[in-house]
Amino acid sequence: MSRxxxxxxxxxxxxxxxxxxxxxxxxxxxxxxxxxxxGEGARITDADGRTxxxxxxxxxxxxxxxxxxAVVEAITETARRGTSxxxxxxxxxxxxxxxxxxxxxxxxxxxxxxxTEAAMSAIRVARGAxxxxxxxxxxxxxxxxxxxxxVKAGSGGATFGIPDxxxxxxxLAALTVTLQFNDIAGVQELFRQRGGEIAAVIIEPVAGxxxxxxxxxxxxxxxxxxxxxxxxxxxxxxxxxxxxxxxxGAQERYGxxxxxxxxxxxxxxxxxxxxxxxxxxxxxxxxxxxGVYQAGTLSGNPLAVSAGLATLAALRTSGVYERxxxxxxxxxxxxxxxxxxxxxxxxxxxVGSMMTGFFCDGPVTDWPSAARADKQxxxxxxxxxxxxxxxxxxxxxxxAFVSLAHTDADLDDAARAAAESMxxxxx
Length: 427
Ligand code: KE4
Hints:
Layout: H1 3-14, E1 36-40, E2 43-46, E3 51-54, H2 69-81, H3 90-102, E4 108-112, H4 115-130, E5 134-138, H5 156-159, H6 170-173, E6 176-179, H7 184-194, E7 198-203, H8 219-229, E8 233-237, H9 249-254, E9 260-263, E10 274-278, H10 280-283, H11 302-315, H12 320-342, E11 347-351, E12 354-358, H13 367-370, H14 375-387, E13 390-391, E14 400-401, H15 408-425
Parallel strand pairs: 3-13, 5-6, 5-7, 7-8, 8-9
Antiparallel strand pairs: 1-2, 2-3, 4-10, 9-10, 11-12, 12-14
């Protein structure tokens, strides 16, 4: 019996499936979830002392890798002065100034403690500011687990085939309309029919929760034009893409300016931070300025903000995004070559340092095409890589992340493991 197995037996007695977030339980790929004891740079070590090259990066936050010295130092220094006050601190001002400087569309921002809170709050502000109720999202899009967003949701919703969660009142779910990602005609038709009812469209500008799916040329621009024309707000959920695919996120990379933006993950550097923000006249609806209520005991927590500020400072070093692009391209090539040599059907979608290899033929441009991927084959590949010391997301419908801690030698090792694992698929 391994230590992870022992721990999972104890965990299952006191936590649902022994985990605090569903995807960690390995139910999407089967087998024994690894309990992780420590992380260092590009690697994690499990409770049995086995070390893995990590491409999950805590689902995106760890763009610098595990336990970077600057982040550990920032947390330690801040903790020595106290951990939380429930009162404003200078650190929050610096974080808000850093975010609004990097995201010109965010004239004002509110810090919260998770991406879920950011998306939930952004929707409430959009409904409060427009006086409308209908929300539009995309099949396979995941924006956290707020009720209105657990409709045709991606990530765990897609992995476990529960895109529409139990416990969400039908009356509330009916206010969420879903479209297919990249379906420009579908967006135009819906707005032709119901434009006046729609408070907001929320989108991951690069989808990361059906696996990685980039926006088709013109898709984001059309969303921007159609929502503006009908008085609906455009919300970019950049919880994954923010500070990941460019310092200024997807809105910098694609040059499309949303009305509201959600951030998370990287801005906390591995500690709990989320944020939402946008044009001043929209954010002035937020309490205590306006009538849209949102609050949080640990919002803007000094420790978490310190970790985030240290992370964002490191991302302002010149050459960082060129390195992430080069490493991402190298990782993609390793995967593509491994599949080609083994004669395995694989479609790799990549934007910068986030990518997904779908085990299917043909392009993956939306949820229906992503859902064609062979989940069993992904699970077999996942375990073959795990045995070879490479830790991928335990779900076909998630992103793999390269960090600044990954080296060329690490990616050569990962490519070798992929070549062996792909070959094993066809034996
Ligand atoms: P959190 O509440 O998990 O911090 O953020 C929710 C969220 C919002 N928006 C996007 C685009 C997201 O990807 C997420 C969370 N992502 C998942 C994995 N893709 C977190 C991992 C998990 O659920 O355990």
